[in-house]
Amino acid sequence: MCPLCSILETGTHILFSCSAARALWSFIREALGSDWEAGDLAEFLQGRATQPGHKRRLFWCIFVALMWTLWTTLNKMVIEQIFPRRTSDSFFKFLTFLQYWHLLARHRVRDLLGVMLDVLVAAAQHLCAPWACFGVCH
Ligand SMILES: [Zn+2]
């Protein structure tokens, strides 16, 4: 069972329809554009995973960091009973994976990923700024 939604935990649920997944997908879509809309794996991979050259590699770097963030976050909840304090915790966890892993990419992809990282970090900082929570957080 999903620890957040209390429904059967499937791959599609964990990675796409869980509230944790939808929050992270929304963050990425807001930062990088509507291309990052996803309802399920087949829908998402159609077109995106078959792009030519560096765009495909760039896509896979971000996609794998996203998947790993969701998998480790939900495992921590199920196995260790440790829940994130804020939704934005998963945004920063995702960005941390991406920052580490982008150094392993080829030069062209690393440079493009660096630009995307700057956009994502700026979006996360904006979301977590004191004025962005409208007083709900404090
Ligand atoms: Zn769920």
Helix-strand layout with pairing:
Elements: H1 11-17, H2 19-32, H3 41-48, H4 53-80, H5 88-102, H6 107-127
Structure description:
- The chain has 138 residues and is mainly α.
- The protein has one domain.
- The chain contains 6 helices and no strands.
- It has helices at 11-17, 19-32, 41-48, 53-80, 88-102, 107-127.
- It is globular.
- The mean pLDDT is 84.
- The structure holds zinc ion.
- The site of zinc ion has 6 residues, from loops.
- It comes from Triticum urartu.
- The chain crosses the membrane at residues 58-74.
- This is Reverse transcriptase zinc-binding domain-containing protein.
- Keywords: Membrane, Transmembrane, Transmembrane helix.
Descriptors for this entry?
138 residues; mainly alpha; 6 helices; binds zinc ion
The helix content, as a percent range, equals: 55-70%
Question: What is the averaged pLDDT score?
Answer: 84
**What is the β-strand count?**
0
The gross shape turns out to be globular
Indicate the proportion of strand residues: under 5%
Q: What string, H for helix and E for strand, traces the elements in order?
A: HHHHHH
Task: Return the domain count.
Answer: 1
Low-confidence stretches: none
Task: Give the bound compounds.
Answer: zinc ion
Biggest pleated-sheet summary: none
**Separate helix tally:** 6
Radius of gyration: 15 Å
Category by helix and strand content:
mainly alpha
Distance between termini?
A: 32 Å
